[in-house]
Structures are given as C-alpha cells and as structure tokens.
C-alpha cells in the first residue's frame, strides 16, 4: 500500500488561498486505508475549507485514468467550474488527476513510502520501487529501504550490537537482520555475494513500464 500523511492544514490553506473555487478528490483505496483521503477526510476537508469548495468526490483509485473517467463523470460541471483540484491521494494520484482534469492540482497529502500495514496508523517502509528487486538474495528484507544508507553489500562500520548508527541506535541494522535471516535459512553464501553499484539510469528508463 502507498502510505500517505495529510499535510498540515495551514499548508493546505496556503495552497488553496489563491483560488476561489476548489474541487476536492479523495482516494477510495490506499488513502482511505491510511485514513488520510477517504470519504470521511474529504468531508472534513470540505467543511474546513468552506464556501470555496465547489464539489467533492472519492475516486476508487485516482491513479487510474479509467477510474477517474468513470467516477468523475457525474462531477464534470463542478470540475469545469473549479480553479484548482485539491487531491487527497498519493503523488501518483495527484499527477494522474492533473493529466485527467488539465487543472491546477494541489497535493493535500505527503506520500511517504510503499509500506507494510501492522494496524491502522502503524505502517512500515518496505519498498522504494527500485525496479531491480533483490529480495531473493537478502532473505526477504530490503536493504534499499531498511538500511539507512541503502547499502548493497553488507553492513557499514556504524552498526553496534545490531543497531544502526543513523537514528541514534534505535533501529535495527538491516544488514544484521539480513545476515540472521540468511543464516536461519542456511543461505549465508548469498551474504558474501558482491553486488555492483546500481545503474540508476535504468530507473530513468523505468519511468514508463509496459507490461504485456
Ligand atoms: S529491492 Fe527493495 S526497493 Fe527494490 S523492488 Fe525490492 S523491495 Fe522494492
Ligand atoms: S548500520 Fe546497518 S542499517 Fe545502518 S547504515 Fe550501516 S549497514 Fe545500513
């Protein structure tokens, strides 16, 4: 799930201040689960912004143009009237709505990470969508996400008793976790495998992916 948090209301006020007519779009998927952009949060936001809100809608998945087309069909007139669209969804939803509406879009949420959910309000950063997954080699623990320096070849000199120097030794060192997991699985040979530095130009090419 894409984990989001709502921007401070003062920031949203500042963003919406130049516009007289604002349409609010929420997300029926991830942002609903995060309690940052579902029906309830959209209604609350509309109440707080008051008269300048010309309409609201919650799209099943605002990051999907087909669902924007379907769920915003009934709101075409209000959207046309709006000077700007305040989006309570992740950055992908905001950009898709920019393409769909052609309007000025305002992000009401900050997108944090692709996360694991323990319970509502408690999420863990688990993936940065690097485009070259190596979880098969790392015991199912992502070093890019969970190592503070995104190291690919084992721990740095900053780990002390399994804790990471970044964040004052509160968090586990990802590479110690990886070592323990690989040991448990009797696959420690993978720990010694050399991984060359990432070719980040690959990521640029991945800005558009076509799956057949
Ligand atoms: S290696 Fe980590 S960041 Fe890359 S795809 Fe796998 S889980 Fe995501
Ligand atoms: S201590 Fe471990 S988690 Fe922290 S930066 Fe070094 S290798 Fe990464």
Tally of helical runs: 9
Q: Please state the second-level CATH architecture of the largest domain.
A: 3-Layer(aba) Sandwich
**SSE succession:** EHEHHEHHEHEEEHHH
Structural class: alpha/beta
Structure description:
- There is one protein chain.
- This protein has two domains: 2-112, Rossmann fold; 131-205, no CATH class.
- The protein has helices at residues 9-16, 30-33, 39-49, 65-71, 76-81, 91-101, 143-146, 174-184, 201-205; strands at 2-6, 22-27, 53-59, 84-88, 104-107, 109-119, 122-127.
- Strand 6 (109-119) and strand 7 form a beta hairpin.
- It has a four-stranded parallel beta sheet, sandwiched between helices.
- It starts with a strand and ends in a 7-residue tail after the last helix.
- It has nine helices and seven strands.
- It is an alpha/beta fold and 212 residues long.
- Helix content is 32%, strand content 21%.
- The protein binds iron/sulfur cluster (SF4) (2 copies).
- One iron/sulfur cluster (SF4) binds next to helix 8.
């Amino acid at each position: 799930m894409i984990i989001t948090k709502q921007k401070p209301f003062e920031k949203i006020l500042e963003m919406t201040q130049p516009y007289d007519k604002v349409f609010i779009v929420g997300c029926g998927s991830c942002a609903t689960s995060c309690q940052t952009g579902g029906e309830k949060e959209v209604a609350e936001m509309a109440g707080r912004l008051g008269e300048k809100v010309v309409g609201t809608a919650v799209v099943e998945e605002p990051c999907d143009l087909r669902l924007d087309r379907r769920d915003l069909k009934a709101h075409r007139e209000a959207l046309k009237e709006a000077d700007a669209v305040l989006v309570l969804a992740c950055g992908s939803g905001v950009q898709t709505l920019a393409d769909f509406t052609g309007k000025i879009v305002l992000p009401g949420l900050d997108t944090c990470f692709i996360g694991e959910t323990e319970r509502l309000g408690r999420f863990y950063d688990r993936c940065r969508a690097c485009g070259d997954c190596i979880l098969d080699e790392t015991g199912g623990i992502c070093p890019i996400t969970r190592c503070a320096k995104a190291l690919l070849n084992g721990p740095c000199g900053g780990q002390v008793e399994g804790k990471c120097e970044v964040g004052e030794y509160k968090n586990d060192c990802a590479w110690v976790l990886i070592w323990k997991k690989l040991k448990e699985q009797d696959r420690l040979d993978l720990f010694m495998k050399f991984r060359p530095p990432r070719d980040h130009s690959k990521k640029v090419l991945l800005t558009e992916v076509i799956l057949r």
